[in-house]
Design a protein that fits this description.
This protein is α/β, with parallel strands linked by helices. It contains 16 helices and 20 strands. The strands form 5 sheets. Strands 1, 2, 3, 4, 5, 6, 7 and 18 form an 8-stranded mixed sheet that branches. The structure holds 3-acetylpyridine adenine dinucleotide (N01). The site of 3-acetylpyridine adenine dinucleotide has 24 residues, from helix 5.
Amino acid sequence: MSDIEKNAGNQEIDTDVDAVVIGAGFAGLYMLHLLRDKLKLKAEVFEAAEDVGGTWYWNRYPGARCDIPSHHYSYSFSPEIEKEWTWSEKYAGQPEILEYLEFVAKKLDLRRDIQFNTRVTSAHYDDARQRWTVKTDTGREVRARFFIPAVGTLSDANIPKFNGHGNFEGEVYVTGRWPKEGVNFSGKRVGIIGTGATAMQAIPIIAEECSHLTVFQRTPNYGTPLRNEPMDPEVDRQVKANYRELRKQAWDSFAGVPFDRLKPSALADSPEERRAQYEACWNDGGFSLWIGCYQDTLFDKEANRYAADFVREKIRSRVRDPKIADMLCPPVSQAYGTKRQPCETNYFETYNRDNVTLVDIKASPIAEITPTGLKTADQEYKFDILIYATGFDAFTGALFRMDIRGRDGLSLKDRWSAGPRTLFGLCAHAFPNMFTITGPQSPSVLFNMPLGIEMHCEWIADVIAYMDREGLGAIEAEVAEEDKWIAKTKELADATLLPEATSWYLGANIPGKPRVFMVYLGGGKNYKAIIAESAAKGYAGFVMEKSR
Ligand code: N01
């Protein structure tokens, strides 16, 4: 470390850091590479975990895997990395994605600038110096020109505080904080709360290993098959030979992953044509039925109803007991795909097993956690292991966990108390030189994450280079432009059926959180053009200050 000076509190301050980045997942790693190796700046990354990986470090629960094909769910910035890495499955599992990120970190020699086992506790902006002061739980205090939380959108685990929280005396696990050493389910009775995308991946595998699994479901979900398979070497060869073209298709698509069956409207097709289209997408697997089938599925109630009926029919065909099938079918009032579409493997068939019990906790809510299990309104359940698959405080949870203060001591939590306020999901007024990678009001979770991350990291690196060229010391969003962006994000969401769902896209899963749709739904291609246009116009929408 260079240029250590002592402050009044006699703590070490490193005056020489250009940027502090938080997180060593897909975002933090690429951001570090750009800052250090392309811009030749001094950057330091803080990471709470003991190694790289981010989401893929923490989410080690059984069955965790990506649901965008591996060839697309990867960095596109380095043809060399693309060539050197070979995926073993169509949809890579968590261990392999983690291995990939470890490989990238090693190849680019990134670990030497990452402080592991270090959590950032606060970041305060000093207007006079145009610097952020960042403090960590290990006692570090670093001053930086740029503060870049790359903390992920789904990283702050949501653990509901039921009555009796903490009373369970058996083993307790949270899917988003899964232990590195794994969990032995053999001969154990297991209870799992939640049936979102995570639980739908984990349940079939846990059911095979444990003696009995009780699933506590509040809301049934429209899961569709992932259809993972071993990587065909010929497919891999073809992808590698045509990677640039495939990446272009991905960048030009709405969600950052190309689908070749997409048709304009379910209403324009005859019932027979619709059936054939749904079946084809169902057989493709992954997100094909959700976003690769008909363009109006998430816009038009009737079109949505056709898809919902199709999925309900498929669920019923897979579950032997009609009463259980009814419990697993989302009701007509719950539109298809307005919550994130879970992709599953043998999820519904799992309920045909003798060692699996499904409990409807909407009909009979959890009354309390007990030392031996839990009680619902009408029954007691006992188990050895309790798993919370209860999701995340998405988008803002990980940011609000830190004491982030912008100009004049304004806290981010206060400034965003009615919902996030950003321009492009990248910058916020009153928080100069803070950049949020895949932040709220960007395409984030509704765009291929690694590509969305690259788009943001490159935009941030470009603006920093621009500021250095022009002798600028601070950038922040204009309030009026923030207002326009918030209105735009809302307008785009309101044109779809998505705001009707009680989903984490809206913060509806967290009691007391304002209900604001937090994803930009204009599509990745449009978004990329918008942020590029702002940059081309000298960062239109932002206020810049000369360097002091
Ligand atoms: O979380 P969720 P998740 N009482 O919020 C239930 C990504 N992901 O971790 O629906 C009782 O979807 C809750 O019930 P309800 C993906 O973007 C990616 O499963 O709110 N139940 C629900 O069933 C995904 O969308 C991959 O009524 C409570 C569950 O817990 C996102 O992560 C794989 C409750 C939470 O579901 C989050 O998915 C997996 C309460 N108080 C996940 N609180 C990939 O493939 C919550 N629940 C890359």
